[in-house]
Specification:
Keywords: Membrane, Transmembrane, Transmembrane helix. The chain is an alpha+beta fold. It is built from five helices and eight strands; from the N terminus they run αββββααββββαα. An eight-stranded antiparallel sheet has the order 1-2-3-4-8-7-6-5, with helices on both faces. The longest helix is centred in the first third of the chain and has 30 residues.
């Protein structure tokens, strides 16, 4: 027969194990349901309707919104990648943000190991002061496109978004998407 002391210790140990298991379940639930944040950026739901491409990832932070998605097998020229501003207009989905967009200047850009073009746009349906930037970079015959919408009139703000594009949360996701084809 077990002593009372052994039964009490056994009951306390069982209670402790159950409490730890409950805490573990709660921690997993909390992490899964907590908004993912990184350097002032918070992940948000993909806002665009379904089309022929997979949904991307979207973040909000620093008075900007950033939308990123791969377009596998969509690069027009696998050898040179994206080299013209008209390609950026065509592939970045800027028309989903504003069908009345006005293209402005473009420039060469490199995001991590991917190279391509970035182009600024004036969003006419949101007022003359609202700008967006479209980015199209290529990897072999695949594209990764991004849109930055918000207060991006100065280069410093665009640089904040560009650094986040090169940060681990975005790069891990992009690499996983490019590796799954």
């Amino acid at each position: 027969m077990l002593s009372t002391r052994t039964l009490v210790y056994g009951a306390l140990a069982a209670t402790f194990v159950v409490a730890l298991a409950g805490l573990s379940v709660f921690a997993r639930w909390d992490v899964a349901h907590r908004p993912e944040t990184h350097d002032g950026w918070q992940r948000i739901a993909w806002p665009f309707p379904r089309d022929g491409w997979n949904e991307g990832q979207a973040w909000r932070g620093h008075d900007m919104e950033l939308y990123v998605r791969p377009k596998l097998g969509f690069c027009g020229n696998c050898d040179t990648g994206v080299v013209e501003d008209s390609e950026v207009d065509r592939v970045t989905d800027i028309d989903l943000v504003d069908p009345l967009f006005v293209p402005l200047e473009g420039q060469h850009i490199q995001i991590a190991d991917l190279v391509g073009r970035m182009r600024l746009y004036r969003l006419r349906s949101r007022g003359d002061s609202q700008l967006a930037a479209g980015i199209a970079v290529s990897y072999n015959c695949d594209l990764v496109v991004a849109l930055i919408v918000g207060k991006i009139a100065n280069a410093e703000q665009r640089q904040i978004a560009r650094k986040f594009l090169e940060a681990d949360p975005v790069q891990f996701w992009v690499n996983r998407q490019l590796g799954e084809k």
